[in-house]
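thought: user wants a sequence for this fold. calling inverse folding tool.
action: design(structure=
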């Protein structure tokens, strides 16, 4: 799989502490949600790839399938979403050590919040 469109990472955190999007395995489509930041949700372009992080692990590699963010009325705080396809996920029952975000990124990843961040802006991305 070519990774030329791998441009983003996004932290995910469910209020109940459970894994988010764990039911979506490779080739499943789902709505990747944002909280109150439509401009940030519109940053990834169609076909861009996003690494999803949660609980200290990189858990998914997803591809953006739509052109812009949509809103769902009545869906609480997380009413902004993009349609994505899951290309890769970890084994959520036994998360592998190599999928720890600190190992993958090469430093202690402490970025919080649910906005996408451009990988090129991270300290070690250009070195890899």
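)
observation: tool returned 128 residues.
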């Amino acid at each position: 799989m070519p990774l030329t469109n791998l441009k983003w990472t996004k932290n995910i955190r469910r209020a109940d502490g459970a894994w988010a999007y764990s039911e979506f395995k490779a080739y499943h489509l789902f709505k990747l949600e944002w909280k109150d930041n439509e401009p940030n949700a519109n940053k990834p372009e169609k076909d861009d790839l996003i690494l999803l992080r949660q609980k200290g692990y990189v858990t998914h590699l997803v591809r953006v399938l739509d052109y812009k963010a949509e809103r769902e009325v009545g869906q609480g705080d997380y009413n902004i979403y993009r349609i994505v396809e899951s290309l890769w996920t970890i084994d959520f029952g036994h998360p592998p050590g190599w999928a720890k975000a600190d190992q993958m990124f090469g430093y202690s990843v402490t970025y919080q919040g649910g906005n996408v961040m451009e990988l090129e802006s991270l300290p070690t991305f250009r070195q890899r």
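thought: summarizing for user.
answer: Here is the designed sequence. The chain has one domain: 6-125.
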